[in-house]
Design brief:
The chain has helices at about 15-25, 30-65, 140-175; strands spanning about 70-80, 85-95, 100-105, 120-125, 130. The chain is an alpha+beta fold. It has a domain at about 55-160.
Length: about 180
């Protein structure tokens, strides 16, 4: 080995291997772990919102799918418009004229000629939605949304739950008396 090929004094090949391993693992350290935690937290929050939204309307949607509920009319009381869309609000009125629910939405196709005071035949199974009298398949979408929300919650939390359970088992094992 010539003088040019010899390592300099104080050269430690193990330190070079450690530096190379750190370089090869770039992005896998604490910074990546923190961003993964942030993504998991965001998925968990969105999954909880989706789960709450889908579960609150699931039971009435299933009842409407079975064509169960009170029959009557959805009467348009107003509309709220934004840049992208208009949301019609109404009340559900029984055939005898008694108002059963106020500030409810209609889930079916609303005719283009609708205006405040228009009446559309509807089915009110409870909750805040009025469905067409022919029933609804909204429950299928809500079941899918519930499943997606549960999968999102599982993905966001399974590692934390497993770590927690592992730590509890380890501490219980350490606290157990020797026999």
């Amino acid at each position: 080995m010539s003088a040019d090929e010899r390592p300099p004094p104080g050269f430690d090949p193990a330190a070079l291997d450690a530096a190379g391993a750190a370089y090869r693992g770039f992005g896998g350290g604490p910074r990546r772990r923190n961003s993964t935690v942030l993504v998991r937290a965001m998925v968990a929050v969105l999954a909880v919102i989706l789960l709450f939204g889908s579960l609150t309307h699931l039971a009435p949607a299933v009842r409407a799918g079975l064509r169960e509920g009170m029959r009557g009319y959805w009467v348009v009381t107003g509309r709220n418009c934004s840049r992208k869309a208009c949301l019609w609000i109404g009340k559900f009125v029984l055939p005898n004229g008694h108002t059963q629910a106020a500030n409810v939405q209609y889930t079916g196709q609303i005719p283009a000629s609708v205006h405040v005071g228009s009446r559309i035949a509807g089915l009110y199974p409870g909750g805040g939605l009025v469905f067409p009298v022919t029933g609804s398949d909204l429950w299928i979408s809500l079941v899918v949304a519930t499943a997606l929300a549960l999968l999102g919650l599982y993905w966001a939390s399974h590692r934390f739950v497993a770590d927690y359970l592992r730590q509890r088992a380890d501490s219980a094992r350490l606290a157990a008396p020797l026999r």
